[in-house]
């Protein structure tokens, strides 16, 4: 759903995109084991191909590999995005997030 929404924003608003996705294995899981899934490899390859296609059409895209529940990581993403694009006008997180992984007040979950 996230990439479909991104594509819609590109096509209708010519939006500049900040794509955030945790593409590395979860803590404690070895990358070799994590990447053995053919489905996961295909998913990552498809995302990279889609991003390259958008960029070849002139899209401005900033990609970060960070978990959206990582408070410090997201602060860095926002800082880099604002430096490159200026003010951020909207944020979409098109996936289910557990309330225990973050909080709505901008502070890390306890």
Q: Could you tell me how far the N terminus lies from the C terminus, measured between alpha carbons in angstroms?
A: 29 Å
* Main β-sheet, spatial strand arrangement: 1-2
User: What is the approximate shape?
Assistant: globular
Q: Helix- and strand-based class?
A: mainly alpha
What is the number of helices?
Answer: 4
- Main sheet attributes: strand count, strand direction, barrel closure: 2 strands, parallel
Poorly predicted regions are 96-106
Q: Per DSSP, what share of the residues sits in E-state strands of 2 or more residues?
A: 5-15%
The run of helices and strands is: HEHHEH
Mean model confidence by pLDDT? 76
Rg to the nearest angstrom? 15 Å
Number of separate strands:
2
The domain count comes to 1
Percent in helix: 40-55%
